[in-house]
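Entry type: protein chain
Record version: 2
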Amino acid sequence: METFTMTARNRAQMWAQLNAQQLTVLQKYSMYALKSQMFNQIYARGAQWTLVDVRTDYHWDEHKAGRKAAGRLHCMCGRVVKHQYVLQSVTDHRRVVRLGITHFEQEMGIPQAIASEVHQRLNQVELYMDEILTYYKRGRRFPAGLYQEAQARGVLAQNVDATSFAAKMADFAAADFPLFHVDQQRLTQYVLAARAVASQERVVRAPQVVAGEQRGQASAPKRQVSVEEGAVTNFARRLWPERKRSELTVANLWREQPVLKRLWLHDPAALQKFSSAQIAQLRTILQQDVSNRSRLRRLAKPARNYYDAHYPAVVAAQFTQFRKDQADDGALKYSLAWQATLQKLQSRCLFEATRGQVYL
C-alpha cells in the first residue's frame, strides 16, 4: 500500500487551498479517533475534565512566519499553539478551557507516557490527512458515481451498520473530498454486494391461476422454487436443523444473516462442500455476528462515534497482518478464519466503545 507523508510546508499549502467546509469535514473525521482514545485513557483515571475537542491550526507555518495573523489558536496562558485541546468540567459544563499540549498535560495530570501517545496519535491523524490531501492534490475528488449508485440501490439506508458511515459519506460528498482508502473500499464493497444480489438472487414466482367462473375466486398463488433458493435452503438446514424449512427461505436468510449472504454470493459451491466441522465453525461465526449487530444497534451516539472511528482502522491493520503469507487476498477475506477474526475484532471494538461513559 502506498504511504502518504507530506512536509509541514506542503500540508499548509494544501490547507490554504481548501474552503471552510472542506477544512471542517477534514478536521471532524480525522479527530474522532484521537479524541475518543485519549478520553478513554484519561477518564479511567477519574479526571475532573472531559476532552470535547482538539483543534488544529491549519496555517501554523504562515502564522509562525508572520504572514497571517487571523485564526491563531491560543493556550489559556496566551501562548500561540498548533494544537488546542478544549476541556469541559465534569461538574460544571459551563466551564470550558482551551490549552496547548504543555498545560493540557499539567491540567489533566496525565503521565508522560500518555502525553507521548498523544503526540503519536497526532502524527497518525496527520497521516490520515496526508492521504486525503495527496489524493486531492492529484485531482481525485469524491466518487460521486459510486455514491449515487449506493444511494440508488439503497445499500446505505438498508444496512444498519452503515448509519454513521452514510452520514460521513454525505459530508465528504458535500465537500467533494476524496475518500480515505478504507472508506473507499467499504463503499465499493457495499455496491459490489448489491450488484451481486441483483444478478444472482433470482426467485421465480408462478403467476396466479384463476379458478373457474363458478367459484368466482382466484386460487392461492403457486410458487416455484428456483434451483438457487433450494440450494440455499438445503445448506441452511445443515446449519440449523432445528428450524422449520419454511423459515429458511432466501429472503429470510439474507435479512437475518448478512455474513452468510456475503459468503454464499462469493462461492456457493465451496460452502456446499463444507464438512461438519466447518458447518459448526460457520454456525458459531453467524451466532457471534447476530450478537455483535444487536450490540451495535444499541450503542449510544458517543460510543458509536468511537466504534466507527476505530473499527475500520483495526480491521485494515489486522488484515495486513493476516494476509502476509497468503497469495490471494480476494479469497482470503471470505475464509472462515478471517470471518472468525472479524467477529473477534468487532466484539473487542464494541467492548472498548462501551467501557465507561464516553463524552464527545
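Comment: The chain has 18 helices and five strands.
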